Amino acid sequence: MAASSVDSLYFDNAADSEEAARLFDETKGGVKGLVDSGITTVPKLFRLSPQTASQYGTTRSKSPCPFAVPVIDMKDLESRRAVVVEEIRRAAAELGMFQLVNHGVEVSVMEDMMAEARQFHEQPTELKQGYYSRDVTQKARFISGYGALRRSSFNWVDTLLMTPAPSDAQDHLPIICRDSATIFIGRIRELGETLSQLLSLALGLTPSTNEFISTNLTTANLNYYPPCPEPEVAIAANPHFDTSTFTILLQDQVGGLQVFHEGAADWVDVPSLHGALVVNIGNMLQVIFNCSQLLSNNKMKSAEHKVFANAIVPRQSVACFFMPPIDFSTMSTKMYGPIKELVSEKYPAVYREASLAALWGSLYPDLEGSLRNPVLARLRIAYDKEVV
């Protein structure tokens, strides 16, 4: 292929990219709108450079990582609490991700949520475009390329972001998925409270300190990943860390989610298990609770994860983020750090305090540098940029 043809696949400058993003947003049709239009190649706005595609790993390795994501059974929790707590502690410390089965959220509730979420995304553009917005204060908004403003390429995904109301009523949500979302949010909140208690026990917290494990469900993202004509040059969700304390994820049977295993220095598939929910630790929990020697291997890891694009069928997921309530007016000023009661001369703090705005800067790894989680690395009290 001639050089000019290769060059034409990518933007010449940031201004061209910004203009393309503006024009794409004006369609309010999302990625699915592009697919429905009959495209046969990935548009520039979503196309990764060869270097970035290689760094992200847009195709599966021919030699899959032998490690597996732990599956934790919550059946008979009251009589098995100590066993479950230890399994959660080990999984959160070693990988930062695990799957839960027999967790109390009915399969029918999860299936209804997925069905109505799909109905929202697959309805005609004119029926959903009223929700299309990048206004972060809007309580229910439809966007595409989530996280794109932090990178040069959009993710191959459409998302309905929902900020759940504090009450059971969720009247601000789209009618087409309001009923299932209301029930699902209620069940996930209940599971979040239970998981909060289990994580607190895993961290050895006392009743006076376990309040720091947030049971506040701040956001629920209904993700829809349309089939991609060139999945090797696009990414459904680029490698990233969640800012949340923890995230509960419902995924369909299509697959494509992977988590990075530090010990193996490789990506591990997160298989779709019928009736299971995926839990991953976020940066907020790692900062607040990562006091040296608190855990057996010194840390509770936030999980770096990604999602492949695929050319065959749509993929769906619902990601529920638990973290302290978000006040956009204090994002840069309110500080979070290790719990004072857990810091001592014997167990000194590992991280400095940080604002939520600073933690959000750690969503995406420094793939061009040497740090996989650069913001957390720079928050370490013993940080030395010459040696990290």
From TrEMBL:
SUPFAM superfamilies: Clavaminate synthase-like. Keywords: Iron, Metal-binding, Oxidoreductase. One of its GO terms (molecular function) is metal ion binding. This is Fe2OG dioxygenase domain-containing protein. It holds the Pfam family 2OG-FeII_Oxy. InterPro entries: DIOX_N, IPNS-like_FE2OG_OXY, IPNS-like_sf, Oxoglu/Fe-dep_dioxygenase_dom. It comes from Linum tenue. The keyword Metal-binding applies. Belongs to the iron/ascorbate-dependent oxidoreductase family. It comes from the Eukaryota. Gene3D superfamilies: B-lactam Antibiotic, Isopenicillin N Synthase, Chain (2.60.120.330). The lineage of its organism: Eukaryota, Viridiplantae, Streptophyta, Embryophyta, Tracheophyta. Residues 216-324 form the Fe2OG dioxygenase domain.
